[in-house]
Amino acid sequence: MKISKLKEYIVRRYFSEVARRTSLLFIGPPGIGKSVAVYEGAEQIAKRLNKKFLPLRLRWKGGKFVMDADGEKDVMEILNNPTEYFILVDIRLSTVAPEDLIGIPRTHEFVSFYEPLAWAALLSTTSGIAFFDEFTQINRPDVESASYPLILDKLAGFVEFNKEVMVMAAGNAPEHSSIANMPSTPCLSRFKVIQISEPSPDDWMTWMNSKHGDEWDKRTYAFLKRFEDEGYLIKVPKTRETLEPYPVPRTWEWLARELKEGFDSDDDIDGLVGYEVGARFRAFLKVDVDMDQLMREPETFLGLNLDAKYMISVMLGSWITQHVQKPERAYGLIDAMSRDSKEYLVLTCMCMTRNKLVLFLKELFTYRPTYKDVLSEIALSIKDAIAA
Question: At what angle do helices 201-212 and 249-260 cross, to 10 degrees?
Fold first, then answer.
């Protein structure tokens, strides 16, 4: 399954009483957005249920436990008004002990029991999602054993989850993580296992536009697209221990955002994607682009090297975003790019946010209707833009 489809899949399963009973395990490369998809899915579910969405962030303040999300909510207030809330519990299994899952052993009047933790108590009364991350990085058999009733029976110790709680987990396959451990067969049999494929640079760019709009440096997309065959979007080291950073979609997101803020030194770049990939990326950034000259002399584009053509395609998207009401100056360059390869114009359009792209395509198709054929895939997905 593509990571871009995961959020919709989670939402659809939640609203099926049959499907909601089955726990899900998402297996895929690190840093591709599995946890983000769970968070966004939970947020969308809460919205559809007309409930207040609360990701679990407990802290002690003023003599009571509060949840810090869109203000401070007293835990007891939530427990006393459970129908108003949708809770997302996110537990990293690589950092917990069995008692963090089943509760603390207590004795009262010669009877022993597990005293439930706050997260379990909340999920026993509210609707929500119990998400257990880093599932394949459990290195304690007792923690894995403690997870069995959570997965199959929706039980944390003696606390039963609300029937409107869905359980899911995420982890990495051994080929993507040197510290990944294979779950035992009894554990795995309690899940529906969903394999999450690596995203493409286009998938990553679409997600970046949806999340950050134009507040990121889109030269990162030009680089990832230019060297797509090199697989620079994800390069996980084969060694178990290393001090060398490595690129995954998450670190490219951080880098693109920081570049927009001017953090573009060698250390800033290499500190997120590593020296080898960082050196290639830094060399790519040195491509000199003079958009004004290219618009005056658009035929110059045809004589440039491949790196420059990719860089210009993305930079043109940024220029059009700023001049979307009057994009006529770019038409000559667009014509030259299209004569070379339609891929460059597609690249220009792909890096634009949806609302700006709709406005631009209306103008472009008026200028030259034949571009509807060149951009058929993009145009068909934005029906408003191709209205006659």
Answer: 50
